[in-house]
Design goal:
globular; about 20% strand; alpha+beta; Topoisomerase I, domain 2; Rossmann fold; Topoisomerase I, domain 3; six-stranded antiparallel β-barrel; about 800 residues; 31 strands; 6 domains; 23 helices; four-stranded parallel β-sheet
Amino acid sequence: MTKNLVIVESPAKAKTIKKYLGKDFEVLASYGHVRDLVPKDGAVDVAHGFDMKYQVIDKNEKHVRAIVSALKEADELWLATDPDREGEAISWHLVELLREKNALKNKPVRRVVFYEITQREVQNAIQHPRAISDDLVNAQQARRALDYLVGFNLSPLLWRKVQPGLSAGRVQSPALRLICEREEEIKAFVPREYWTLDAIAAKSGQNFGAKLVELQGRKVEQFTLTNAVGALAAKDIVSKAAQGELVVGAVEKKQRRRNPAPPFTTSTLQQEANRKLGFTASRTMRAAQQLYEGVDLGGETVGLITYMRTDSVNLAQDALAEIRKTIADQFGAAAVPAEPRYYKTKSKNAQEAHEAVRPTAASRTPRQVAAYLNPDQAKLYELIWKRTVACQMQQAVFDTVTVELRAGTGNAFRASGSTLVEPGFIAVYSQGVDTPSGKDEEDDDKRLPPLEPGERVKLVDLVADQHFTEPPPRYTEASLVKTLEEYDIGRPSTYASIISTLQARDYVRLDGKAFVPTDVGMIVNRFLTEHFTRYVDYEFTAHLEDDLDAVSRGEKQWKPLLAEFWTEFKQRIDEKQELSRSEVAEARQLGVDPVSGKPVSARLGRFGPFVQIGTKEDSDKPRFASLRANQRIDTITLDQALALFQLPRKLGTLPSGEEVSVNIGRFGPYVRYGSSFVSLKKDDDPYTIELPRAIELIEQKAAALEAATIKSFGDSGIRIVKGRFGPYITDGKRRARIPKGRDPESLTGLECEAYLAEANPPPAKKTTKKSAAKKSTTAPPAAAPAKKVVKKAAKKATRKVAAKKS
């Protein structure tokens, strides 16, 4: 009989922990949550104190049965789910479920947590069990209830007023607002022209650049030179004043020291993995979960990193000692500072009992474990290892020089250079930044020749360059995660699911690494910001997160929090039920169609964005055309909209006299010639393709058909063709299988025609009631069918009689 039953969340984690606990422990996985709210209205009973109605998750029912069965053989139940709100809630739900099934039978229930899956930490946790935290469970229930109340009430409103299948989420919607507002900024942005004037100077054969900072006694700023005329005039002034030389003025030398970045939290790990590895947040968390749960290192399964859902930058004392020893071993004693570095978190609710994301053993280098990891695991482990080791290394030291170079009186240039003197932590790791290159520009080694005040250097050239101000950049996953954290929207463990949901709902798309809102996303955001302003407000969302954190600390009660939210939210939902669809998915007027004189508009329909010529009030129906994949309602022009009505386009005729046209059908764009069709290739545009390319596609299809033809039958058009699943008969319109055992070569034209006719019978002619009655008088049915008719009539008569009696 097993003395102890331990429950964790995943089978990988169960396998690792089982090895650490020995024969007296059986370890099973719950496979995540075992219960969730019933998926229907009323799961959170707002009329009865926000009681929550749960049910077993279908896919996990078999795992619950396995736990119930194993518990019969155990003396004690140990709950070792993850050390966060979700993990606490999973343990609580499981206990509640076991009680309902009368499976506990007063057996002791112990909750244990550990932040790394190593033998030492797991065994230490078993020595220090505790009770399930009601505060953490209530915080999770409150979050789940809030998300349910928003989703189940706001999403149906979107279905009716905008488009079926949409959703609105409590945290997802403010995230969408960030992306849409940035897009509006970009759209409204008006670039400004400005010019710079740079000097190329030289000393002892070394060229270096300098930027104009003073012109005729006035400081040069970004918009001092705003056109070519002013820039060329400035160049002429400086050139005449300099006479081919620049005089060195003040020389400022100083040493700059840079500290390493703190160890990873969930958020900074997601940001950095996106910048440096190109990982999405969900890809990062998936690889991190695998590293945390345990990897087989040639016979020993061990968790390689600490728990990856954390907002703490704290490192345990024993971890610090090991990291410092590893630095000394790998990079020398000089790379280790005199004292350990301690970092403080910016998060208001960071739990300092948690640690930052770090390797469970710093001595286990990326090179040592690479052979046992898949590519994503190896890249992420190396990133975590380097960041952790670097955070405890010496500062990087730079020598910086700033030199003033004068060109006559009142004109000056500035040259700057920096030299890395002591790399310190940079030898291992330098934090990525949100620049186009993804790296810190200060990391570039820019050297100047030795310069002294009063000496003269050669002026090689003056370069005037035109520039334009640029709009703010679109959000990448890294910058979106960073902004969500800055606004205190959501929590790091939810960022991956927020971003995944926005993409799954087609509210945003990735253009390279940048998020671009779709038409649907823009309209949903406009609807929410106009009609549910408070609930997509950044401060309101952040304040609600603070309230949930207060519940988790036992400082607030969760049901009064729900009541406060629901009262105002329900009132708002009720107010907006009467909105018309046109008020929500409003049309954008583009102009007038020059041919018909009717208005042209772009709008969102139930099946996507489209343009329309005319209105529903016109005597004839409006004309419609779907937008192309790269077009948007808020940016499409009148000319672009009218071009969408060019299809079908006539391209010309074939030498055989068949007309050739192009159109877009159910399965994509195609060329039609006579009664035949050929699909366009990926790079072909139905709006620009011309006859020569269409003939090329037709000939390619004919050549492919000829190559696949086993046998043909002259002018009949019937041929036997090699198909993907075997030979078949076709005449270009109909298809028929060849019976098993028949040799395709032995078939005759008549046999093929018979098979085609049998496989493709003509549709039955529809008959009206009048013609049916006519037929019955002129051609009475045969005896057998007549009996059936009489029988049916008798039944009808019986029913009528019965009806009368009643």
